[in-house]
Amino acid sequence: MKKLLVLTTGGTIASTKTAQGLAPGMTANELMTYVVPRDNVTISVENIMGKDSTNMQPEDWLIIAGRILEQQDEFDGFVVTHGTDTMGYTAAALSYLLYGIKRPVVLTGSQIPISETKSDAIRNLDDAVTFASQTHLTGVYLVFNGLVMMGTRAVKTKTKSYDAFESINYPYLASVNAGEMVSLYEPEPEEHLLKAHTSLDPNIFVVKAFPGLSVDIFDYLVENTHGVIIESFGNGGLPFQRRNLIPGIEKLIAANIPVIITTQILEEGQDINLYEVGKRVADAGGVTVGDMNTEAVVAKLMWVLDQTHDPQTITKMIQTQTAHDIGFV
Q1: Contact 8, 31 (CB under 8 A)
Q2: Where in the chain are the domains?
Q3: CA 20 to 30 Å from 278, out of 35, 55, 268, 307?
Q4: DSSP assignment of 63-101, as one string?
Q5: Is 86 annotated as a binding residue?
Q6: What is the pLDDT of residues 10-27, one digit of tens each?
Q7: CATH of 204-318, one of 3.30.70.890, 3.40.50.40, 3.40.50.10610, 2.30.42.10
Q8: pLDDT one-digit tens code per residue, 142-151
Q9: Is 310 annotated as a binding residue?
Q10: Contact 305, 201 (CB under 8 A)
Q11: Is 15 known to sit in a ligand binding site?
């Protein structure tokens, strides 16, 4: 008999219609009336918050992680119901905050509230329970539309369709349907080179590069952030003609503020030294993150900065594979 704990946090899956539009309003117990009982699984449920995931903050990630850690010895697995808009960020954050946990932690949600016709919520919740109760894997995962994704690789790519999430730069781990799970990919065993750590420094800033981005933004960043993530073009390039962004990166590095370079392109990662526009960024001190997605980079940088502000250590930790977040492609 497997014992699971379902933690509810709000989101579309638990939303009801209000005068201001859909908003979380269903209780945890009401949500669970839609789950089909199983002979070999005992399910407990607990509501820990009721938020539209747009309002989810790093402090909320800590609450979720803390509740799981408090009860990890009492249950065989955990399911977290969550709104879809920031579920990729939460899945990544929990992957770091719960790093090394010996239980499966499965996030799921829906595009349509569970009480409405044609909702995908019942299937997603049932699939999450199936995976959490049948898998031998531990760590954090996201289950959506019958597919299981690594928590650090799940990205929302659609606003309406049932297949809203994709596993970016990493294989899907399993498919789930009607209480049955089929493994699709077995993750390679991962060396735990970094230690577990359960707090965050949220004082970071994400800059999306675009043609015309003012160099003046870097003056603000130097004075107001502990770390910067830049979503570059293509393989890691940023402009160095007209509005030259390279001195801005150098200014941040001189102030011991790490500059993490990801890419706006979802698939296939980056090769920052392939073009001059990328090599200049790397030479200025920008830290490449290969095939990581922005959601994972945001959560990991918060996690790393809470542990150290040493530039070399930050680079090493960011580029160290943690919960299979980097280095697949």
Answers
A1: yes
A2: 2-183, 204-318
A3: 307
A4: HHHHHHHHTTTT-SEEEEE--STTHHHHHHHHHHHTTT-
A5: no
A6: 999 999 999 999 999 999
A7: 3.40.50.40
A8: 999 999 999 9
A9: no
A10: yes
A11: no
